[in-house]
Amino acid sequence: MSEDRRLMVLRAIVQDYVQTSEPVGSKALVERHHLGVSAATVRNDMALLEEEGLIHAPHTSAGRVPTDAGYRVFVDRLSAVKPLSSGERRAIGQFLEGAVDLDDVVDRTVRLLASLTRQVAVVQYPSLTRSTVRHIELVPMGSSHLMIVLIVNTGRVEQRVVDTGRVLSDATGEALVASVRARINEVAAGVPFTVAATRLRRLVDDVDEADRAAMEAVVSALGDALVEEREERVVLAGQANLARAGTDFQRTIGPILEALEEHVTLLRLLGQLGDDPDLVSVRIGSENPVTGLQSTSLVSMGYGSGAERVASLGVLGPTRMDYPTTMASVRAVARYVSEILDENQAT
Amino acid sequence: MSEDRRLMVLRAIVQDYVQTSEPVGSKALVERHHLGVSAATVRNDMALLEEEGLIHAPHTSAGRVPTDAGYRVFVDRLSAVKPLSSGERRAIGQFLEGAVDLDDVVDRTVRLLASLTRQVAVVQYPSLTRSTVRHIELVPMGSSHLMIVLIVNTGRVEQRVVDTGRVLSDATGEALVASVRARINEVAAGVPFTVAATRLRRLVDDVDEADRAAMEAVVSALGDALVEEREERVVLAGQANLARAGTDFQRTIGPILEALEEHVTLLRLLGQLGDDPDLVSVRIGSENPVTGLQSTSLVSMGYGSGAERVASLGVLGPTRMDYPTTMASVRAVARYVSEILDENQAT
DNA sequence: GTCTGGCACTCTCGATCGACGAGTGCCAAG
DNA sequence: CTTGGCACTCGTCGATCGAGAGTGCCAGAC
Question: Is the Cβ–Cβ distance between B147 and B160 less than 8 Å?
Answer without folding.
Answer: yes
